[in-house]
Amino acid sequence: MPVLALVGGQWGDEGKGKVVDQLAESADVVVRFSGGDNAGHTVINHLGEFKLHLVPAGIFTSRVLCIIGNGVVINPAVLMSEIEMLNKAGVDTSHLVISNRAHLVMPYHLLLDELEEKSRAGKALGTTKRGIGPAFADKTNRLGIRTCDLLDKDGLKERLTMVMDSKNTLFTKVYDAPPMSLDKIYDEYCVYADFLASYIKDTSVLLTQALARKQLVIMEGAQGALLDPDFGTYPYGTSSSPLSAGGSLGAGIAPNRIDKVLGIFKAYCTRVGNGPMPTELFDATGDEIRNIAHEFGTTTGRPRRIGWFDAVAARFSCFINGLTSVALTRLDVLDSIPSVKICTAYELNGELIDYFPASVADLEKCRPVYEELSGWNSPISHVRKFTDLPLEAQRYVRRIEELMGCEVGMTCCGPSREQVIHLKSVI
Ligand code: IMP
Q: Which residue has the CA at smallest separation from atom 19 of ligand 1?
């Protein structure tokens, strides 16, 4: 049985939650590997509709071991309420395990995210304000507090005292803000420690065992390739790597153990937050797609920016992720659009280019070159076989496949677990 890394191919919100929920039925382990509660994975299944921020979307299949990997930054308050919400809805969470190496999002990270965004003024990144950037910065700066620290309350106090000393200096001397109370944060985190202690384990041991038993492991990504700190639209991106390579580090699975990489792409593009998006639509078609698809952020509720499918960016995403197949989600959203466009190249400074530029200034200057295809003007939400799709929809999928240079293994035609068309096995 293989190890499958499942990653976002665009700017996040591609529907990874739905695909993980679907594939988890045949998996043994699902491990979330990056991001934090900036992610919002929506799952609709026989138990109801759920918006998950930290718990892996495999949680609904009770025999699946669900791991929050070392690469995730965890806000324990959010995780606690997510577990309680799931339990209330009758979802068993006894098969959830949290890596003892994962870093914690602390109250001062939330405040710093807010203050840093304010100080960027007109150049704000449009973060989710969940403290993600500051938490990953502390990890790299060796000022982080980890889940294993929750298991040693004396050690936690000592570490918190040292870290908060430097944070409070920053708040009072740089931002002219009041200091935060060490005792209040310590007491709060002791409550989380008591609640989460039984979930915190050395997950690398569990994953080693799963691999030895040749179990099917799904690595669940968050966000999307174009938000990657190295390859995305830097600095307009997130702070941990959503790529398959990030998955290796963030789950604790060596790169040579990953057999397949499935990239999730929407049949069009969306983006939340600021930064370049070459195919963005500012017209009535963009509004129509936003309304049909209800494109508002799961985590922040912000309206998502809408654009045509960008095959230049998608090809880049295929390459840097090493995709072995693609899942194309939300195809049904385009049902009533009379003609659909795909961006096949950019025009930059009067020249045609087929690569994704590194510089934000260049990306902002890129003009998309489109190929226009007829729409299918009929509902497809009931279709379960590719050949039963209207020919125009088949052509749209095949053209995207051709331009990306990667096979489409599945496509989704509605939000529920069943509304999936399988073209070939992705596992
Ligand atoms: P942060 O990750 O909260 O620091 O936000 C940085 C950028 O990534 C902002 O543009 C966010 O809107 C974007 N972002 C973060 N998480 C997600 C996600 O799950 N989906 C889509 N965009 C995201």
A: 39
Distances (CA, A) of 337 to 251, 289, 304, 381, 397: 40, 8, 18, 15, 15
Whether residue 244 contacts residue 322, with contact meaning beta carbons closer than 8 Å, is answered with: yes
- Predicted TM-score (pTM) of this structure: 0.96
How do residues 68-108 score in pLDDT, each as one tens digit? 999 999 999 999 999 999 999 999 999 999 999 999 999 99
Distance CA 306, CA 300 (A): 16
Task: Give catalytic status of residue 53 as yes or no.
Answer: no
Which residue among the candidates 28, 37, 41, 109 is catalytic per the annotation? 41
For the chain, the average pLDDT equals 96
Does 41 participate in catalysis according to the annotation? yes
**Torsion sign, CA atoms 413, 289, 244, 39:** negative
Residue 175, phi then psi, degrees to nearest 5 = -95, 0
Q: Which of 272, 280, 298, 302 maximizes ligand 1 atoms within 8 Å of its Cβ, making it the mutation to test the pocket?
A: 272
Q: How many CA atoms lie within 13 A of 424 on its CB side?
A: 9
What ligand 1 atom has the least distance to the C-alpha of 39? 19
